[in-house]
Amino acid sequence: MNIHFYKYQGAGNDFIMVDNRNNNIDHHNPRLISHLCDRRFGIGGDGIMFLQNITGYDFEMVYYNADGQPSSMCGNGGRCIVAFAKHLGIIDGETTFLAVDGPHYAKISASGDWVSLQMIDVDTITTDADAYVLNTGSPHYIKLADGLKDKDVYHEGYAIRNNDTYREKGINVNFVEPMDKGYFVRTFERGVEDETYACGTGVTAVALAMAKHNNQIGKIETPIKVLGGNINIRFSYDGQKFTDIFLEGPAVKVFEGEVNL
After folding, report:
1. Active site residue 80
2. Structural domain that includes position 182
């Protein structure tokens, strides 16, 4: 069976996109998913998404990590699937779709390559020694770091993700360094089990954690640089709860093709 696929990237976080509105593809197959995401023997990607019909929403986002397992929310993937939906003619300038962590509203530019995605509200941030831990649709560990450009993010992130506290369920590990008016962030992602060029829920978590760290209150906008480019996060914080959280950045079609399953 041949399927048509599309490849999208959001600040270097890259995803395989498949239009599965006719439900022809049974994607509950970890071996197949991990093969398609393999960068040497498959198409290659940090994950794969299936766009499907669902009552009450413009579409449903079904996402798998590169290891073939169902994933929690992926922020950059959410922005990319919005651009994909516009490409397919399902939406125009705005949308409400369903993801694993619930409904998401998004707006997309007329050019179709810049997406502003609303994330879930957050009211809990805990600490683990000198790190912050929170869930922005996916669980994240946030640690301030010096000399981040030269840090061994793979090995340090792997060690934290696989320690006694996080080994069973896993966690995404983000290292952050102040930079200009925002932050530089590098992330080790569970499921991918490697450093990625960007992580949408990760940079969102960083922005919220740093607002708490710096005792910022009110409407806040935080620019963040990642290995794959630049992302913006804006939100409101009243000292107790983070609301109106938007993850904003590029979502670009790279190529399309066919693959034999």
Report:
1. no
2. 125-246
CA 50 to chain centroid, in Å, comes to 15
- Shared domain check, 104 and 84: yes
Same domain, 112 and 138: no
For strands 218-226 and 13-19, give the pairing.
unpaired
Instruction: Please compute the mean of the pLDDT values over residues 36-52 and round it to a whole number.
Output: 97
Average pLDDT (110-125) is 96
* CA–CA separation, 137 and 120 (whole Å): 7
Q: Are residue 200 and residue 238 in the same domain, yes or no?
A: yes
Catalytic residue among 83, 119, 122, 199: 199
Looking at the 3D structure of the chain, how many domains does it have? 2
Q: Give how far Cα 177 sits from Cα of 143, 144, 210, Å.
A: 9, 6, 10
Name the DSSP class of 120: P
pLDDT tens digits along 196-220: 999 999 999 999 999 999 999 999 9
- CA pair distance 201, 193, nearest whole angstrom: 16
pLDDT of amino acid 261: 81
52: CATH: 3.10.310.10
Q: Which of 74, 82, 106, 115 is catalytic?
A: 74
* One domain, residues 137 and 34: no
Q: By C-alpha distance, which of 233, 230, 223, 228 is closest to 254?
A: 228
Same domain, 96 and 190: no
Please name the amino acid found at residue 45. Answer: G
